[in-house]
Amino acid sequence: MKPTLEQHQAFMAHRVLEGLRFDFLDAVDIVAGEHAGHTGSVLGLLTIDDEVRYLIELHSGFDAPVREANLRLRAATSEHGEG
User: Which domain of life is it from (predicted)?
Assistant: First the structure.
């Protein structure tokens, strides 16, 4: 099921939506599926039913739909490379 306009706007405004593991602009690693091994940022919410899907902007510059189960929050690192 596609998110409603209200859900999409709430997501873009960084408001918590029940059942979602990721937030707008979160940095993520893709750990499984077609784009496994890539990194990117969460740009949008595509579906919110039993299988949540996000639109991910890959660091290669392309956008891809990715299942929530295939994503992991990217570990934050300092500007000195320490994490």
Answer: Bacteria
Domain of residue 34 covers 5-73
| Domain-located, residue 81 | no
Average pLDDT rounded to a whole number, residues 59-79: 88
Measuring CA to CA, how many Å separate 12 from each of 15, 24, 36, 78? 8, 6, 25, 25
What torsion, rounded to 10 degrees, do the Cα atoms 49, 31, 45, 9 define? 120
Confidence (pLDDT) at 78? 47
DSSP per position, 20-50: -S--TT-EEEE-SSTTTT-EEEEEEEEE-SS
CATH of the domain at 22: 2.30.30.30
pLDDT, tens digit, 9 for 90 and up, residues 24-41 = 999 999 999 999 999 999
